[in-house]
Amino acid sequence: MSALAARCRAPVFGRRAPRASTIRAMAVRTTYKISIEHQGKNIDLQVPEGESILLTALDKGHDLPHDCKLGVCMTCPAKLISGQVDQTGSMLSDDVAEKGYTLLCVATPRSDCKITTISEDELLDLQLMTSQ
Ligand code: FES
């Protein structure tokens, strides 16, 4: 190899460029396994980090109750059996959220989750009890 060719292969600024496999790995988001029990049926989903569980389910053709998709109307209530979600922006009181209740439209997974849907009445009763 000539001296010129060796200099052309020298690392710039003392660092090597990342390999293509490293760049691809950095671009792949974490995906969580979400299992939702709804009216006696089980829905299994792969939900990417930061994505709404409800919107992912709807995109996959599953029929789950919803209306506003903004965390306001409370027509998409559910209870976490296991796992954790982020539900920033939800209208749930902190007390209710700490008991594991969630609104699927604003819930984004922080881990694999098992979830069961509940009735709006059950959630509204809980909300009213904690607001007194
Ligand atoms: S769809 Fe309205 S709160 Fe979830």
Describe this structure in words.
This protein has 132 residues and is of the alpha+beta class. 29% of the residues lie in helices and 26% in strands. The protein has one domain (30-131): Ubiquitin-like (UB roll) (Roll), CATH 3.10.20. It contains five helices and seven strands; from the N terminus they run H-H-E-E-H-E-E-H-E-E-E-H. The chain has a five-stranded mixed beta sheet with strand order 2-1-7-3-5. The protein has a two-stranded antiparallel ribbon with strand order 4-6. A hairpin with a 2-residue loop joins strand 1 and strand 2 (41-48). The N and C termini lie far apart (81 Å). The mean pLDDT is 87.
User: Which bin fits the share of residues in helices?
Assistant: 25-40%
- Major sheet: 5 strands, mixed
Taken as a percent bin, the fraction of beta residues is 25-35%
Coarse structural class: alpha+beta
Number of strands: 7
Strand order of the largest sheet: 2-1-7-3-5
Which ligands does the model contain, each kind named once?
A: FE2/S2 (inorganic) cluster
CATH homologous superfamily?
A: Beta-grasp domain
Quick overview:
With 132 residues, this protein is of the alpha+beta class.
Features of the shown structure:
Ubiquitin-like (UB roll), Beta-grasp_dom_sf, 132 residues, iron, 2Fe-2S_ferredoxin-type, alpha+beta, 26% strand, binds FE2/S2 (inorganic) cluster, five-stranded mixed beta sheet, metal-binding
